[in-house]
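lol ok so funny story. i was supposed to be doing the assay writeup but got distracted and ended up predicting the structure for this chain instead. priorities right. anyway since i did it might as well share w the group, maybe its usefull for someone
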Amino acid sequence: MDSETQLQQEFISNACYRMDESLRMIKICLDKLPEKVIWQEPNESTNSIGNLILHLCGNITQYGIASLKGLEDDRNRDAEFATLSGYSKEELFQKLAETVQMAKKSFTEANREELLEKRSVQGFEFSGIGNIVHVVEHFSYHTGQIALWTKLLKNADLGFYDGINLNTKNEN
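and the output, tada:
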């Protein structure tokens, strides 16, 4: 295997790992919360967890699936935030998990040319690699918002890294 192929596989592998990590953290949050708070907005300037999950599904689909695969972009971003109910936390998580799986498949199936090809998404110009970086970063960003809102509601550590010594020093 040549070094470019190795680099491509390493990049995609790490992007998929980060997607799985965000999904794992959101699942932990949802498991700690009662159903009634999923659609609760912290204040007028903040979105509910339900809206954030719908928003993530829309964004991941637009950037990580439709754009990379050359499919029609049928995202309705405004609806992601206008929805006030209609999904249980389990349904939201299932929708997100399925979207993440499709995106990871899209990442792994993209060839070198598709990863380098520039395309316009949401008015921005990105390569396939740029789209993947955006998806991972955006997913992580909103995962942090969901984690913070969960911590505020529960006043407790979420245990994302239970059993792992996060004070371990780097090995050279």
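The domain at 3-154 is CATH 1.20.120.450 (Four Helix Bundle (Hemerythrin (Met), subunit A)). The two ends are 26 Å apart (CA to CA).
back to the writeup now i swear
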